[in-house]
Structures are given as structure tokens and as C-alpha cells.
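Entry 14. Ran structure prediction on the chain below.
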Amino acid sequence: MSYMKKEDLKCFYMQVRSDKETREQELGELVRFSGLKEDQITVVNVFDTPIFDGKDADGHHFVFIGGSSDDNDEVAYPPHLLEPVASIEKVLEHTYKESIPTLASCFGFQTAVLQFGGELIYDPEHMEMGSYDISLTDDALRDPLFCDTPNPFHAISGHKKRATKLPKGAVSLASSPLCPIHCMRLSPTFYATQFHSEIDRKGLVDRITRYEKRYPIGDGGLKKICLDCRETPDSNALIGKFIERIVLRN
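Output, C-alpha cells:
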């Protein structure tokens, strides 16, 4: 019997970042935390390529989608994202049906929640921006991806929308005081997190400095977030664990 090796893997990465600096930074973070080389990752930036098909993920061993730099202040997608989101949904539908391992975070999590029948609300009063203690559910303690993750663990989270209802059949795996649904397992090969497994403390500080006008935190609040933000090794380790435990065993 032959076994797939990590160096043989190909990742289909749907990127929802509009500015060059964040595009490059996020790709670098995915490379670092996955342990893959950049040439193992096919990057489809939805602002450059808004129309693509679910079967474009074929030939890849797993799919990743992260956050968005173009979020808005309501649950409905802004007009300029309608076409890209339709393409993203085609990929997620295909990977779900074909059991292609999929890991989604933040915007990717919210897209999957809505696509598969869950519900979101716009809730700026419970906005998260910084590093937070994430608590595991009982199901997570028995989950192959999360079973050895400390409880609680620190993770980077930045959002004004949150899930209030998961899709039918999805299993809730994590929560925080401000966000009761922080992670779901939609199938044995499909995981999605509201928190960012791909961002560490430095990545967050860089982003909130870059996007500070989008968040009502003010200069003093921005400095406090940067000061209070903690390192997040356990959440960042989830990408590598996903590859080892879900992708390579699929």
C-alpha cells in the first residue's frame, strides 16, 4: 500500500483579500503553518478571478479559505462579492459532496454556515478583535482534529457577524463568551472556524493597523488590542494537524 506524503500534497486556496500586502502576508502564513511549499498551493484570488468552478478543486488534496478584507455591516453580501461568493459556494458544495478535505476560517466559516442552511446575525456589540480564549465542546474533546488541543486555547478572531444556528448535521466544536458558535464540523473532512488558525499575533497587529478605519476601536483601542494580544500557537497548529490527521488519512 502506498501512502501520500506531505511533500506530494496540493492545496486549492481561495483568497478573499483585495490588497497586495495582505495577499502576500496571508499566503506566507498558510505556507508557514501548513509546512507546505508555496508551489504546492494553487492560489485563486476571487478579486482577480471572480468566476471559477467547483471542479477546479479537483486534482488538489485539500481546500483552504480564510478571511476577507471586504466585509460589510450586514449579513447580506455586498454587490461586488456576489459573483465571487457564488464561485466559492460551488467549490464548497463540490468538496463537501466529494469529501475533499476543506478547512475554512472567518469569512470562509460564515460563507459555509449560510450556504449549508445555518444562520448569521450582524452583532457589532459582540464584535471580537484580538486574541481570545476559545473553549472546546465535549464533542471536540473526542474529535480527531481537536482532541489534544488545550481547553481553553488562545486564537485570533476579528468579526462583527456571528453564527446563531449551524447547518443541519453540523457539530459545534468551540465557543467564546462573545461568540457561542466558533467552530463546526460539517462532515469528517469539512471543518470551519470563526477564529483564524492562519493568523498569529503579528499577523493580527499588521491587519488591524492596515484596516483600522473599518473597526470602531479608535487609536487608543487599537493600541490596547496590540498590547493585550497574545501568541496563539495552539490555534496555529490546527492547520498542520488538519493536514496530518484529515488530509493525509483521507
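Helices lie at 20-34, 79-98, 107-115, 138-141, 201-210, 218-228, 233-247. Will compare against last week's run tomorrow.
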